Amino acid sequence: MALSKITITEINGASRFLTSDDSKSGMLFYVSDTSALAETSFQVYSLQEAETAGVTVDDFPVAHYHIDEFYRMSDSAQLQVKFVSYTGGTHDFAEVKELVADADGDMSQIGVYTQANFSTGMVTALQAVMSDLKEEDDIPLVSLLQANFSGVTLSSLSDLSSSNAPQVAVLLGQDGGGTGAALYNSIGKSIGILGAALGSLSVSSVHESIAWKGQYDVSGAELNTLAFANGTPYKSVSKSQLATLNDKKYIFLLKDFGLNGSYFNSSFVATQESSDYYSLERGRVINKSRKLLRTSLLPQLNSPLYLEESGSLRLETIGKFTSLAEQGLQGMLRAGELSNYSVYIDPAQDVLASDTLVIDVKLQPVGVSRYINITLGFAVSLA
What we know:
The chain is α/β, with parallel strands linked by helices. The chain has 2 domains: 21-264, no CATH class; 302-383, no CATH class. It is built from 10 helices and 13 strands. A 7-stranded mixed beta sheet has the order 2-3-1-4-5-6-9, with helices on both faces. It has a two-stranded antiparallel ribbon with strand order 7-8. Strands 10-11 form a two-stranded antiparallel sheet. The longest helix is centred in the C-terminal third of the chain and has 20 residues, at 315-334. It is globular and about 75 Å long. Mean pLDDT is 92; it is low at 4-19.
C-alpha cells in the first residue's frame, strides 16, 4: 500500500481573481440563428471556462479570439458572455439589456461584437440602450462597439464627435499579422480589438486612460503587427490620416518611435471633446461615484428629515446624509480616482413642501496628460 499523501494537480487557468466591481464586464456576440450557443448566456473567469461552456476555437473562432484576448489583458475578471441570433437588419441592441440582466446588473463595462456593417445609427441605438439602463434601471455602464468595416475606406468614415453618445466607444483597430489577421482573411469581416480593449478597461482603475503608454501595452503574440478593421495595414497610413481618425473619435492601435509595444491612440467616446464625459475614464469615474452614492443613500429613502424651529434642516440630519454621501467618495479619493470632491446640503431647503432632499455633489476629476509640451534650447547661463 502506498504511503499517504496529498496529490495536487496543476491546471491551466487564472492566476488571480479580480473581484472589484470595476473589473466586471460583459461581452455580447451576434451569431447565426443556427449556432449551438445562440440565445445562451453564461459567466466565466477564464478562457478555459468559456471553452468548457462550448466556445471552442473551431466552432466559435471570433468569440474564442476575443475572450482569449480579454483574459490576456485582464487575467481572471468576471465576464458575462452572451450569444444572440442575428439574421440581418438594423440593430437596436435591445439584447444588451438582457446581457446586463443575466448578470443581475453587476458589471461596469460591456463589449458588443457584430459583423453587420458599421453605421452611426448603431452608435445612436447603443447609446439609447445605455441611457435607458442608467436612467430607468440605475445601471450606468460604458460600452465598446466592434462592427464590420471591411470594404470601407478610412477616409470615408463618419465623424463621431457629433454623435452625442458619451457611453459608447467605437473600435477601429485590428491585428495585422497574427490570429486576428488570419481570421480576417478567412472570414472577410472585421475581427477588431474588442477583447483587448475590454480587457484593458477591466484591469484599469476607473480614472486611468487605456491609452496610458507606460501602463497598457497590448502587444504580445497578438497585436504586435497592427492594422485597421478594414484590413488596411497600419504602416500604410500616414500620420495626418491617423490624426484625422483620432479627431473623429475612433479607437485604434498605434506604434511610437522610441517605445516598444502597441498602444491605444485614445480613450475617446463618440461625443464632443468639450463634453465633461468625452472619454471612457470620465464615464467610468462618474458611473462609479453614482453607484457608490446610490448604495450609501438607498437605505435612507423615505427616512425622517428633522427640522429646527425655524424650518431649516437640523445639523445632525445634514451631518448624517453628508457622511453617508462621503463614504464611497472617500474611498475613491484615497484610491486616486478623484482629485477632490465636495458634498453640500442646503439647510434652508423646504423638504416639507417637496418631500425631497437635495444633495449637491461635485467631483474634481483626475487629469490625463494627453499632450506634453517641452521647451528645449541652449543657454549661456542657467542661473
